[in-house]
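One thing: can you check what follows?
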Amino acid sequence: MGWEPIRKRHTGAVRPNLADYPRSRAEFSWDSARRQLAGLPGGGLNIAHEAVDRHAAGPLRDKVALRCRDRGGHATELTYDDLRRATNRFANVLRSLGIGKGDRVATLLGRVPELYVTAIGTVKNTSVYAPLFSAFGPEPVRERLRLGDVRVLVTTPQLYRKRVEQLRESLPALEHVLVIGDPPPGTRSFAAEMALASDEFTIPPTSPDDMALLHFTSGTTGKPKGAVHVHGAVLAHHVTAAYALDLHTDDVYWCTADPGWVTGTSYGIIAPLTHGVTMIVDASDFDAHGWYEVLQDEHVTVWYTAPTALRMLMRSGAELAKRYDLSALRFVASVGEPLNPEVVVWGQEALGLPVHDNWWQTETGAIMISNYAAEDIRPGSMGLPMPGVEAGIVMGDGERVVEVTDPEAVGELALRPGWPSMFRGYLHDDARYAKSFLNGWYLTGDLARRDPDGYYWFIGRADDVIKSAGHLVGPFEVESALMEHPAVAESGVIGKPDPVVGEVVKAFVTLRPGHEPTDELRTELIAFGRRRLGAVAPKEIAFDQHLPHTRSGKVMRRLLKARELGLPEGDTSTLEVGR
């Protein structure tokens, strides 16, 4: 540890939503919190109504909901009423295509206005929204489209040609592709379809338990899993944004998370809009000067970003931050991977504000553990459980688990089910979903400890999924793609610690006879992986003709990682001898 707590005393003009943590936690109930939502006029609950339509029918009608900056810095603004009408049009487009309740609609897009229209219009139609990461290569895109039974894809001509066109015949469920721009053969123009659609739409009856969102994640095997979320999740999105991000209606909010991941949906679309804020959307890639300009020029008050980005800003020095007027900024939060204590303290020095870490997963749908505006920060800690969330440290043998009450004991972080945004299943994999629960706990797969004051501290993953720049990378997926190269007989993939992105993907490759381990082949394999996998491809490749295996033939990634980092190899009783 070694880091002094950052003492919090509220002195600002904006009173924190969670001003008294012990009292709020003691008095909170999800049933009472539901009164914060409007509900559909005829009964039921729909995410689009809570995020957009109810504001458009009231005093926030003409308030800017989205200010979308393109790569040149030009901004397009959509008021809440603009967003209502645009999402109505998209819902009508879906209806005209025969897409209805429960049908999956995916986006393969960057931060463009059409993504937000598609997301909200899809759930308004009671269809299911499934975001895809635009930097994925063709194989990850195909696997997710296939697993999700996606019927409609919204993308760009460039991404369609690079990621989807050659795979289209292998995706019989994919009936319609809408492109933003000139449509290639076999696709439709997004703009043309929208122009023909009415801007009036009545949201159909929607139950809080109706499926609304499908987020893809990776597990121990690395095969993508589709985590199912429902319309009722909007309650957790709304409450946690108030408590963990301290969002108020007057805020100008910027979430830098890629819209292809769960953070970019839960806190980059739904949660902020339910609070009626003005949301900044910036299409540009990371650039220290550019990001500070966004914070300054847009007068951002609440900023939610990733540890990788903060570490990169930290490398640029506190002096750079001080060149910009960041006086509007009042709250900074971070998520996606563990946040270094140094970054928390750097925020205080460079931004005049500490960075508030928080923890959650694709499966939890919303923030579960957080540092709060009015509570002390312990640098390096995930913080305290959200009101309405019961967390614990458990240990077990796979058949049963018990809660560990000893302070500082390391075990698996677990949650008691019952919060509204808890995932309701893995699509087409009921058995895998059932294994996520044991003895009344949801098992997160993360190792953690809890200090005597109730603060939680992340230790690491219980499996070997790699977190790189906030993205989950499944080793199996990378290994499988590499083995498609004619020179590769086998591969093992690990995450190698990196001070900027958390972990970089490193592959150990066994070559087929007749191929030599040259620098040229290494470069070729890296390029091959990039073409197939996109941003999650390996950044480093090492040749190894003697990969360690278990007796059942599996590559021992744990052993590869230990040897790479010079750590103890631990139990090697399952190591195959003589291979």
Observations:
- Residues 466-565 form a domain with the GMP Synthetase; Chain A, domain 3 fold (CATH 3.30.300.30).
- The chain is about 30% helix and 25% strand.
- The longest helix spans residues 80-96.
